[in-house]
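Figure 2 data, in text form.
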Amino acid sequence: MIRVLARRSLDVAYFTRDPARELEGIREGGPGWWIRGGGDPSDPARVADVLASTPRAKVVGYDLVVAAPRAVSVLLALDEGRASGVVAAHRAAVGAALAYLEDRAVEVRERVGGETRTRGARWSSVVAYTHGVNRHAEPHLHDHVLVGARPEGADVVLDARALVAHALAADALYRATLRHEVAQRAGYEVWRSFAGVEHVSGLDEGYRALWPGRHALRGEKTHWERPDVVARWRDERRRVVLVGARPSPTRHRSTLDEHRFAGAFEGRLEVARRHVVAAWADAAVFGQGASDTLASVDALYPELRPGRGVHEVTVGVPRARMLERVIERGARPLEPAALDAWAQRSRSLERVRERAR
């Protein structure tokens, strides 16, 4: 899941001093890249300006940590030729997740005429840093996205509750977009299992065990040179115990897993737009672009379109599931003409069910 880490210091040396040379040659430019804004991403003064806040607030900004699934990160160590496409796909997916958060989770609460009101806002600048290893020198593709606590044009800090509430949906969008983009940019088929684990078709599961990503000790921060870390990975690969690859699903690539989708609402009393977005993105087994996911959700659930922040409009679980329409829609690009015909059939089905009740 995307981690939302509050920052209480303007010291950004951790980001600006890390050259992340482990990705040199397979990443466009340096580790720092501007999602919005400009300047030198290695200049501490310029980066510190991103962390806008107010004199009374203790939090100056947030570090949004967006990490690729383990199987995708492993590709960095196994395929030098296509690693650049994997990194580019990751950055595209990070941008999609950030756009979703800004559209639905950046809110400020203001006092107007004695009443507390919420309104949507946006960050004035956003900078991200792409790294390729963890503290144990294992392949670990991730970004640190720095944003300010006070949005552009606001006199108060944003409502952090909304940021946390939408992190799960943003993460699901990131992963679905990543699966889609890796296929487009690197030629690998990435799919998500019913248990919620990403796999790469043909990738032996022994590599996940070789570089597990979780250790009892945190390890020390080390700045690796690209040739050194590649040599280390090459040596470690000699120790892998091959156990075989997970067979990918045989279903058509444009379908959604209706069981995964419906199961996402199990135990809920009400379902908000963010829950539907997360369920849809996770159910797109082979991935889907964020724009297609969001367009499908808004077309099928028009009453949920205004939803943003913590207190979104909700629907009941039966309405959220709508399996007939979800199966028919599937994970494919939106076609307005087909969608109009589908909406008419959907309304007819609802009227039939209403009469039956």
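Caption note: Residues 3-237 form one domain.
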